[in-house]
Design goal:
342 residues, alpha/beta, 7-stranded parallel sheet, two-stranded parallel ribbon, 13 strands, 39% helix, globular, binds UDP-4-deoxy-4-formamido-beta-L-arabinopyranose
Length: 342
């Protein structure tokens, strides 16, 4: 193992942050986890503790708060920052854009200020394929243009990447990697951590598992009249553990990148439709999903999936887990959180 790294991991009580914390710790790194619990609680932190067999280093706090960051950075000499903390609901961002611009942009700016002051030069950013909008060329590579984002949430991701582009130009020693996730799904195979949507899930897979668990009467498929083989939208569903491992590789290899600002599309490279996913879930779990076809959801991209070639070439990373693994693991987690013995 390379030199263990001291990492500040923000948004650690969230879905992808928690899974990345597990992979970092199990690889021998030393992450300090922070979260303000504005969109989470300590459930996943307890799950991390069970998986790693020890209490993770965690401090509650808001990375928009310069005084909080000052305290953290003066107590620990970090090698790197992995920044997950952001609001991520497409729908909520449309109804409350200012909350999204305030939270997602200010957390990034305050973190970069603290890094500059305390001479921390490695930054891994949690970005999203949403920066591409509806791509013209599929599969999508990192040279695809940023088109108008479908939501203020997506716009904050585009703006954050623009901020990073400007700051690496002025801060010569800063090195940045932006990881553009396609659709993260699934849960840790232990069933001890997973996705914890607040209220009615926005995303497909948690809605599928909650319907299968009887917590929702039925799933609505938002349209089957698109120009795709079965009429439903197509996405690149990537297992959250594969995604977490990509962050470990990125933080280990950031110094070897050819430039001080690289972006990587993180996906399987395969497109799967909504209806295909439902069918796969039923086959993998033996549980029927009650669904109906409803009208299209505004802002939905019809079809997108990654060209993961750059991550494979430059990070030596590619997905190892299948959609079946994702759905089986998501179901195990759903049964645990809904105390189901089925
Ligand atoms: C996937 C497909 C829906 C729910 C968004 C963000 C992205 C990423 C993941 C933030 C679409 C259909 C969904 C439902 C449905 N990050 N669907 N019924 O919109 O591709 O991506 O979330 O979390 O940045 O943009 O993900 O899971 O919401 O939708 O038919 O109840 O499933 O129409 O075609 P999306 P999603």
């Amino acid at each position: 193992m390379k030199q263990p790294k001291k990492i500040l991991l923000t948004g650690a009580a969230g879905y992808i942050g928690a899974h990345t914390a597990v992979e970092l710790i199990q690889k021998g790194h030393d992450p300090l986890l922070i979260d303000d619990f504005s969109k989470s609680d300590d459930t996943l932190l307890k799950g991390i503790e069970k998986i790693i067999g020890a209490k993770p280093n965690f401090i509650q706090g808001d990375c928009k708060d310069p005084a909080f960051l000052e305290k953290l950075f003066s107590q620990k000499k970090f090698d790197s920052v992995i920044h997950f903390a952001a609001y991520k609901s497409v729908g909520e961002s449309v109804s409350d854009p200012l909350m999204y611009y305030n939270n997602n942009l200010r957390s990034m700016v305050e973190l970069l200020n603290a890094m500059k002051k305390f001479k921390v030069f490695e930054f891994i950013f949690s970005s999203s394929c949403t920066v591409y909008g509806q791509p013209d060329v599929i599969p999508v590579n990192e040279n695809a243009p940023f088109k108008k984002a479908e939501s203020p949430y997506g716009t904050t991701k585009q703006m954050c990447e623009q901020i990073l582009e400007d700051v690496v130009r002025s801060e010569k020693e800063l090195r940045v990697i932006s990881l553009r996730y396609f659709n993260p799904v699934g849960a840790h195979p232990s069933g001890l951590i997973g996705e914890l949507p607040i209220g009615v899930p926005n995303n497909l897979v948690p809605y599928v598992t909650q319907t299968a668990a009887g917590l929702r009467p039925k799933l609505t498929v938002f349209g089957n009249d698109y120009d795709t083989p079965d009429g439903s939208c197509i996405r690149d569903f990537i297992h959250v553990v594969d995604l977490a491992q990509a962050h470990v590789v990125a933080v280990e290899k950031i110094k070897n990148m050819p430039s001080n600002n690289e972006a990587f599309n993180l996906g399987t490279g395969e497109g799967v439709s909504v209806l295909e996913l439902i069918n796969k879930f039923e086959k993998a779990t033996g549980v029927k999903v009650n669904f109906e076809i409803g009208s299209r959801r505004s802002g939905d991209v019809v079809k997108t999936y990654a060209d993961p070639g750059k991550a494979k070439k430059m990070l030596g990373w590619q997905t190892k887990l299948s959609l079946e693994d994702s759905l089986t693991d998501a179901w195990r987690w759903q049964k645990r959180v809904s105390h189901l013995s089925i």
